[in-house]
Amino acid sequence: MAGTAFARQVGNLPADVTSFVGRRQELAEIRRLLSVSRLVTLTGVGGVGKTRLALRAASDQHRAFDAVWLVDLSVLDDPSLVAPAIAETVGLRDQTTESPMRALSAFLAARRTLLVLDNCEHVLDATAELADCLLRAAPELRILATSRRSLGITGERTMPVAPLPVPGPNGRRTLKSLERYDAVTLFADRAAAVLPGFTLDEDNGEAVAALCRRLDGIPLAIELAAVRLRTLSVGGLVERLSDRYRWLTGGSRTAPPRQRTLQALIDWSFQLLPACERALWTRMAIFPGHFDLDAVEAVCSGGDVGRDDVLDLVDALVDASMVLREEHDGAVRYRVLETLREFALARLGGVDSEECGMLARRHRDWYGTLVRQAAGDWFGPRQVAWFFRLRLEEANLMAALESCLREPGEAETGLRLAFDLYRTHWLPASLFIQGRQWLTRMLEAAPRPSAVRAQVLCAAASMAFAQSDAATGEPLLREATNLARELGDPASGALACMVAGKAARDAGEFDRAAPLLEEAAERLTACGDLSGLASALLALADTSSCLGDDERAEGLFKRGLDLSAAHEESWCRAWTLTIFAVHLWGRVRDAEALAAARESLPLARAFDGGAVGGAAGREASDGRLSLATSIEVIAWILTGQGQHVRAARLLGAAEAIAGEAGVSTARMGRYAEHHEQCASALQEALGGKGFARATHHGGRLSVDQAVAEALGDEPAREEAGEAASDTSPLTARELEIAELIAQGLSNKEIAAALVVAQRTAEGHVEHILAKLGYTSRAQIAAWMTARKSTPAPPPPRA
User: Fold this and answer.
1) Which residues cross the membrane (predicted)?
2) Does residue 169 carry a pLDDT above 80?
């Protein structure tokens, strides 16, 4: 290259001044991507650690290149300066009239180079054009870029950089489990630098977990928070996070100004967005949790954001790392990190602003319509789909209720929404505490006599009785009954009659319950309330069974089953089969009882996605209680048939499932005597240690394992076969993952627990299946359970 001189250097990567935490899987993925693509772009929200990750990746691979150069583009304010900045960085001193691009291309073509282009977002077009030209001219060149959004050129591979994993909000954790989360490790490391002697311990562990969670696992936010330990405790930091932009300041003086405060960092990203993207993004702050595209189109379009433009704008915002794309139960959802959402809300003028109020009304109306649709479809074939859809939307549903309370004159709307949620969400999901709190708040906000108030009073009374809180339930029911009578409203009157009948039945007053429930069934039929009718028929059948009127009871059970079957409904049908099984067992009709109980299991299982003995934090559902009761009945039957080991395992599984549902013993009080009789018989047959071992084994089964065994499949021990020996074909890491599978964790949860990518966890699971010759996770769980158990002869099959 005549007329050109260059410095004899192999790179300019800076040395680390603080420890690098985690990101092992991301580093491996960058290495893989660079092996198959010559341009890899790390994308992610500001402060997520793209630069630090790129530098570590480049440092790890510097031996594979003749030179590794870091070019910081954040200081440029003119796109035309991109090429000169790169040339200056690599030591190119151009002394000819040759264009800078051509000279740079020739220079890079002469050696194997890794170019790290950092902070490309504000000069994106110029960087993309230059990268494309350089890659075409220099076949040995590799580019690793960092940007809020992809460069968008042929051959580019993008890798989104997610925030660091954070502990979930549910339950206390051990210090060892907390230390598995990179966000916690990062905070502890940076805190020790600010406050010598700081360590993670039992006193501060939960506060650190809460802090990292509230900061969304964003490394810069965590590091800025750690600086505040000079004057605040961890608990004090958590308390002040409601005003995080005020407190999260004071970054390194040598950092760019935009990285010294959280406010400046996010404002930098915001200002880079086109006006229409800024408008949509700020409006999306109205969603408190994740949301779908239909909701964005309905709630956030209007003015300068056309409804037809929303899809493209959302796509652009995802590309710009301002919105996260997630998958929940197979559905694509979107989320704005809470840290960014607070910034967007401030841009709207705060929650009390006129624009925010308008968006809140749209949001409330959209989700109110959604819940009305769910209520209308509830007693039908889409019931399970609606159940899970509403679980996904819980944060938005609660925000809609809050909006009804905040907006003057909307309390009546809130009452209707609350009643629909009672039937479609709180009751089937066993969310009694949450449901009662909202119903109470709505009743207090809307004291005016109305039919919907009477219905909500019935709902509140029903949930109080379900929790054995008759002292609260009785006055609510009296008010509901009187109000329904005064208004002459048949629907609320029928509902009040049913709640009264169920309360009498649960209190053991069967003679009083029967006529109330019979009247309720007639009135609900007249009202066309099929869901209420199915529930009343079940309660009346159960009451008739307790009164010894077997013929009437069986006729009512079958009528309820026929009603549910005709409408392809699952929830009431599962419960009806469960209680029918109890009735048949009590009449020594074991074969019919076993068939009914087993038929109920897959129906109830459809409403539940958790596992016994698994990770905390899964949402329980009323399906759990139905499952537990059916499995318990099967244990009673098998005890009578002499299948003691299997019966004891199922008894342990039933207890674990009911416990995870959070159901009080009082609610299952009528079956307590049968449970004790079964347990005593099994203890006598197996001995105290044998009974304890079998029930412990059952309590560790996943829900799928317990259901499979209750359905008559081979027990978990038999599935494991000889694998209970001390030898194992699995590596230590694979054994660790197999144990998490046995605890009921999903691949996503395993990845979070071990701080690896989900695809890595999936790969390990596939290897485990292949090594063990299995085809299902349940078999892996059974193998692990049997491996840890004392060998014993398998029980006979049912």
Assistant:
1) none
2) no
